[in-house]
Amino acid sequence: MTPQRRTALVSVGAACALIALKLSAGLASGSLGLVSEAVHSGTDLVAALLTFFAVGLAGRRADRGHPYGHGKAEHLAALAEAAALVLVSIGVAAVAVLRLFGVIETEVNAAWWAFAVVAAVIAIDVSRTSISLRSARRYKSAALLSNALHFGSDLAGTLAVLLGLTVVALGWPQGDSVAALFVAVLVVMAAARLISRNVDVLMDRAPADATEAARHAIRELVPAVRLRRLRLRQAAGRHFVDVVIGVSAGAAVAQGHAAADAVEEAVKRVLPGADVVVHVEPKSAREADIRERAQDAALRVPSVREIHNINVLTVDGRTEISLHLKLPGALSLDAAHAVAEQVERTILGAVPEATAVLTHLEPLAEAAEGWRPSEREIERHAESVLHIVQEETGASPRELRVLQTGEGLVVFLTLGLDPRTDLAAAHGMASAVEERIRRERPEIADVHVHTEP
After folding, report:
1. 204 in the Ramachandran plot: left (φ > 0), alpha (ψ -120 to 50) or beta?
2. Residues of the chain with pLDDT > 90: what percent?
3. In order of start, what are the domains of the chain with their CATH numbers?
């Protein structure tokens, strides 16, 4: 039996115990508050049984008839629970109102044993609420979360019943009916939240936070691709993501596959456990032509030193171009803005089909001055760097240079690798060396690793 089902089974046992306690005490004392709580616990029993079976069904593996799995069974169970809560609450509220207006007269006996029963119920409510909440967070279970919220409302209702009995004992018999009415309103509010949350999932409403996180991850981690469509839905705490990307029309199959893998990894980084499907499409020749004309036009403008991240966007049928400009860092903002406006006008002239050009200004890194540090300084750092290289690659570097710049020490390494090593493995080895040097020698400002056969 899975941990989720064990948690649900504990809820079944707790609901049975609470029904017996509340109903016996409510009938014996004439307390509508306790009777309403007993009926409420009856819906808990139904909900816990639904959750028990729904969690088991949701845990089944995907099959031919259910390729996305059975996770939505949990949300159906939560809806059934919410519907039962609403019906019972309406009945309790009606009886409470009739008693408040004197249509139904019942004497309430606020005896000591009634208070003892309420204290025992509070202890059970606290324990099962905390157990269900911890399990819901651990396993990301919608049904267990619904139970936790439901049990939390039970605790609040039981506290209201305790207050009602206290008021009855102090001489105001209508306090019990007021407590019962409060419980009914509380339960309806909880049911409304459950219905809203689970209907959103069953209707495949895209979770806004998760969608934005996935979109941002793709744009930041895989800037070379064009994101054309992103669709996202969730069930039982798991996200299902469909992505359509555009790559260069001249890209090889392997490059397109690598881009799809990179997009999938980016999405899973922000949405762990997500089921991601990536469809790759070639960028249109028209888009490539627009990008080339925009780049040529921008580079003709004086002061422009570098251009990157050129994107061609279609917005409401109109073509827009966005790009990053690198200008000399010494330029004032006013002068840089004037250059950007000139770039925008030049691009619009070269690409008449474009309706807007958006530029992002960045400072161009200026040439830095470097000098050779003392021999003692070189030896001190070279020894540790050589040790790291030998441990990571099994051999000494072909070349090791240490320079001092205004930003700090910079290390240049040349690694000799087996000519049969593929490019991905060579890059991984260079990255491992670089990251370890940065981690173990934080006083080194920068590391450049070159690999060759």
Report:
1. left
2. 3
3. 3-202 (1.20.1510.10), 208-281 (3.30.70.1350), 285-364 (3.30.70.1350), 370-452 (3.30.70.1350)
